[in-house]
Specification:
13% strand; 247 residues; alpha/beta
C-alpha cells in the first residue's frame, strides 16, 4: 500500500504538461515543489507560488545544478513523489536534460517512494545499442530524442527492478499542444498530464504497480529493450561511469 502522498516535485513546470500537473496537484490539496530552468522563467510561476508551491531553480544541462537541487531537496521536508517531466525535443541539451538529469535525480534524491518518468511514443524509434560507450551524454552535439526517451523508459523499468519498495513507471503523455509539441498536436492536453498525477497519488490497485509504460492510464507494451535486463544493466553502468554516481 502507498503511504499518503503529500509532497511532490514536478520538474520542468514553468509551462506545458509540467505546469498543468503542478496546477492540478495543488488544486487537489497536495504540497507541490515546482521547478524552473532559470530565474526569468521562475517569475512566470508566481501564480503557483502564491498558492503555496515551493520552488527550485536550475538548468538541467548543468550537472552541478542538478546536484545542487538534489542536495537542497534532501535538506528539506522529504519528497513522497517525483514527476520527472522536464525534457527537450532537439539540440545539444537532449541527452543532458532527458536522461542524465533524471538519472542523477534518481540516484541522489533520498526518500521518494514514487517516481514517474516522462517517456514518448518516439522511444520506439530509439536504438538499444550493444555498447553505449560512444553516446554523447554531455551534449557536445545534437542528441537523438528517440534514443533519450528509450533510455529514460528503460531507466524507469530498471529502477522498478532494483528498488522493489519504490513505484517506478514511465508515461507517454501523447503528442499534445504544448510549446514542445506545437499548436497543431493532435492529442488531448488534459489527458496528457492526468496519468502522471494518478500514478503519483492514487491508491487504485493499478496505480500501485511498478515497472509499467502507460498511455492515458492504460498499460502499453514498450520497446522490447525496455525490460531487457542486459540492456538495463549496460545503460546503468554507462550512466554511472559518466556521472560518477551509481544507483
Amino acid at each position: 500500500m502507498r503511504h499518503t502522498t503529500s509532497r511532490i516535485l514536478v520538474t520542468g513546470s514553468a509551462d506545458g504538461l509540467g505546469r498543468a500537473a503542478a496546477h492540478s496537484l495543488l488544486s487537489a490539496g497536495y504540497e507541490v515543489v515546482v521547478h524552473a530552468r532559470n530565474p526569468e522563467r521562475a517569475t512566470g510561476l508566481a501564480p503557483l507560488l502564491e498558492r503555496g508551491a515551493g520552488i527550485v531553480v536550475g538548468d538541467f544541462t548543468d550537472r552541478d545544478a542538478v546536484r545542487r537541487i538534489a542536495a537542497e531537496m534532501n535538506g528539506a521536508k522529504p519528497l513522497d513523489a517525483v514527476i520527472h517531466n522536464a525534457g527537450v525535443w532537439s539540440g545539444p541539451a537532449v541527452m543532458p536534460v532527458n536522461i542524465i538529469a533524471p538519472y542523477l535525480r534518481t540516484a541522489l534524491l533520498r526518500g521518494p517512494r514514487c517516481l514517474v518518468y516522462l517517456s514518448s511514443g518516439s522511444h520506439f524509434d530509439g536504438h538499444p545499442y550493444p555498447s553505449l560507450a560512444g553516446i554523447d551524454w554531455r551534449g557536445e552535439h545534437a542528441g537523438s530524442y528517440a534514443d533519450s526517451k528509450l533510455f529514460v523508459t528503460a531507466l524507469a523499468a530498471a529502477v522498478a527492478r532494483l528498488r522493489p519498495g519504490v513505484l517506478s513507471n514511465a508515461v507517454d503523455p501523447g503528442w499534445v499542444p504544448t510549446r514542445m509539441g506545437g499548436p497543431h498536436a493532435p492529442d488531448d492536453l488534459e489527458l496528457g498530464h492526468r496519468t502522471q498525477e494518478w500514478l503519483a497519488t492514487s491508491e487504485d490497485s493499478q496505480a500501485l504497480t511498478t515497472g509499467g509504460y502507460w498511455y492515458h492510464r492504460r498499460l502499453q507494451p514498450p520497446h522490447r529493450a525496455v525490460h531487457d535486463r542486459a540492456f538495463q544493466d549496460r545503460l546503468l553502468h554507462a550512466l554511472a561511469d559518466e556521472t560518477g554516481v551509481a544507483i
